[in-house]
Amino acid sequence: MKPPRFRYCSPESLEEALAVLGEFGDEAKPLAGGQSLIPMLNMRLARPSVLVDLNRIPALAGIERTDRFLRIGAMTRHRAVERSESVARAQPLLAEAIGYVGHLPIRTRGTVGGSIAHADPAAELPGVLLALDGTVELQSRRGHRTVPARDFFVDLLTTSADPDELVIAVRFPVLPPRSGTAWLEVARRHGDYALVGVGAVVTLAEDRRTIRDARLCFIGVGNTPVRATGAEAALRGQPAAADTWRSAAEAVRNELDPASDIHASAQYRRSVAGVLTERALALAVQRAQEGTAG
Amino acid sequence: MPTRFFGEPIKRAEDPRLLTGRGRYVDDIDLPGQLHVAFLRSPLAHARIRSVDVSAAREMPGVVAVWTYDDIGPCQRRMPLLIPHPDLTHPYTRYPLAKDEVNHVGEPVAMVIAESRYAAEDALEAIVVEWEELPPVVDIERAIRPGAPLVHEELGTNVAAHYVGIVGDPERAFAQAAHVFRERLVIERSAGMPIETRAVLAVWKDDEDLLEVWDTTQAPIVIRNALASLFGLAPTQVRVIAPDVGGGFGCKIMVYPEEVLVPYAALVLKRPIKWTEDRLEHFVGTNHERLQIHDAEIAVDGEGRILGIRDRFLHDAGAYTPYGIIVPIITACQLPGPYKVPNYHVEFRAVYSNTVPVSPYRGAGRPHACFVMERLLDRVADELGLDRAEVRRRNFIQPHEFPYDVGLIFQDGAPTRYDSGNYPGMLDLLLERMDYRRLVEEELPRLRAEGRSVGVGIACYVEGTGIGPYEGATVRVEPTGQVYVATGMPQQGQAHKTVLAQIVAEELQVPLESVQVVEGDTAHFQFGSGTYASRSAVVCGSAVALAAKKVREQGLALAAEELEVAVEDLVVEDGRVYVRGVPERGFTWAQIAQLANPLRYAYAGDLVVRPRPWTGPALPPGRQPALEATEYYSPPHATWASGAVGALVEVDVETGQLRFLRLWVVHDCGKMINPLVVEGQVHGGIAQGIGGAFYEKLHYDENGQLLNASFMDFLMPTAMEIPRMEIAHQETPSPLNPLGVKGVGEAGAIPMPAVVAAAVEDALRPFGVRITRMPLDPDQIWRLTHPAEA
Lengths: 294, 790
Hints:
heterodimer; A: Uridine Diphospho-n-acetylenolpyruvylglucosamine Reductase, domain 3; Enolase-like, domain 1; 3 domains; 5-stranded antiparallel beta sheet; 12 helices; 14 strands; 36% helix; 26% strand; B: alpha+beta; Aldehyde Oxidoreductase, domain 3; Aldehyde Oxidoreductase, domain 4; 7-stranded mixed beta sheet; 6-stranded mixed beta sheet; globular
């Protein structure tokens, strides 16, 4: 388990990093926290000829709050997000989900941008970003663009970023008033990738008893994180009640098309996605009603 | 008053060094000029090798040598069959590097020796092998059907061994039984996963004519003997050292190909050679265990008393049988557990498959046996409407019935004879700790009324421990006051340095810190077999006790002579030997050691040796110049530990998740040398048992590819998954050894699949399901409770 030969460069500015990516494109691979890439290198599953270490570019890390969103720099460690008070206040779903990411050593090293760019369909952060309709900031020598999460996650470990583009930050939009969120997941062990996970975001109408808007995003059930758009549409205008959650669960089960692997069957994942839907919606609404958001 | 060391909860002497990162494992040792090894391992489960082209690899930068079977000289012979058995009619072992066929993914095919492991792994990619694929044999039930593809064509069968054991008259017992119940029970494949993978470092020391080998083995003397005979060296020309070893769990007791090939490379290339197994290699290159499929039936009378058991099972042997059929033999012998089974028919076939070979992994056939027996008893209780604890109580061997003969020959060739135990007492203690009646009659109904799926299980087990052949120890009081203890057993976490020191300190009444236990180095002790089968405390501990006792006698005799008193007038206390009632008339142990060895000493501070008139030789005939004894202990047969566990679990029926609410353990390993160490062993075993009940399973696909060869997908429980354990001890001393001790190493791993099955089944009573396969997982639990959706 030793990596094949590669060229290693450690740029000290974003421009320098983008220049290397621009030059080598497909051949280059950015190294962020290394929690997925290093094992893949050691197992010789990834064979980049150039490794672009981003760890000496301090400008890529940081958490910023604007009126409309929380912007988290790509090289921000999970642990920084977990400990951030502004994340806890502004983005409770992210704050809740981040604790499910691996273990403390992994969160201490792993980065937000690394997780988003790696696009593991069972990982929490891509799911959170998609649940919140967030966006990804990409930069290359050619320029800067933002891509909505729904267009960013394309397939298994595949994103719409071009080879010369670097994820430099992700934006998590701020929730409207009377909103509540919940993140639930079932994993084999504490810290494992989810067998099924769900992020629920619910906004109530002014009566606080009717659902104005609901979002349900699942991880571990497809090649990307998946939104249950049918179930979401059916939830709008419904009363906040157990029957509603049950119907939503049924809709989710019909809508999702998970695969089987050695850890759980497709049928299990589909069924449990429904169970988590009910539980997460109930919890998110309770939080919205209590004004605790998440 | 003598100071008590034996039986005291003394903290492990090993820990300060290990916990502060000062351990020294094989991979921590580097020698100047050392080369590194990487192995090309078969990517296929079953294939003939048409050709291996290593020419390009040999030209790679940093590569010193690339070897195939053709290049390995004296190693061109099959690996040893370590434990033959008359019923192992078709044994088969591998060549260190595959000769013309591979039989499992991971089998070593070629060996690269290079300036770095990186260079060695690069060169692996340049080796070209032309394969002729053969049909893989993975499913052992299919493997025994007529016409099935064969793992080893020349054997003409996939059945390595067919064993039949019969006690009493099972046919008659079944014919006359009030009830007969049948179960098909499966324990899946798993493996030991020590945190330190295997590693070997070897160097030929030309100036000393010595082959020095550091090896993460549980049996350095066995490795030394194997290397000496393989290379035509005297045993004293080979020194094998097992330094700190980070866990063994059984899989490090073997003679693996790497353990002969790396030393051979050191002999040939005259440079130090190191190989450290990586985790991927460990999954496919180090032995596995567990898979058995049992068709078991139990015959009982109207009151639930066992009349007989019939069990026919298949045991997955993997591709080779280097360790014989120890695992299924243990299963067969231990299946009756603590119960009277007057009529017993047990039969197994050990079946070859194109998978990693199987040899003992902590528990070694016992978790399987316990699972089968306890499942059958739960079935009896449920069918007859009896309490599950009551059924066990009705079938226990009673305390006055020891020694008790099960009627079969155990793994060590001796009778399966329980020496002592108190099984009813053990269960009573467990039920008392669980507050069983209240739990079952009040607590469970209350929780269930809240809609919670909770259940209780209990399971009892025995463990044959401390088998022979023998172990030995040297104990010596140094003239400087330290006590040197050497044994042939290395440790992989068992706290030998603590507990063996306790035995010596108790006998000589010296401070623990003055006892230096040296082990795992063939330069210090020459005879013995190794650390396995929960035998260190029993066999090695007894040898240490015998040697310490002899040293004590030597010391008393010398002191009595010097003080001109009778031995009976002396007391041993506070590190001294003195005349009873006259503490100032006596000697420290250091002084007695000096008396034994009438030399000049460099510093004369507390010297007692003084000029004497000439009476003859300084060392009279029959006397040795040291307080030193080497003793061996060879047990007549195994000594039988036992235990009982109880679990209160909760199942999330909708997600199949399992949570332990309480976990109780009663354990009886005879006299405890150190209760802290005993509890540590129980904790570790239980944790591993929980792994075997809910997490650890190796998934082979139909092509013989291992699908979860990483810690991401092979799930060992972490501290987060292990509940607090409430442990109680019962001490039923063994009459077989001088210390009255029994082994505890594997204890906890044995009953967990059984108890988890019982508790989950109890929690799922409304669904009327039976748990017949281990380990469980959320998906399986969900399937049991959602038959329509699954």
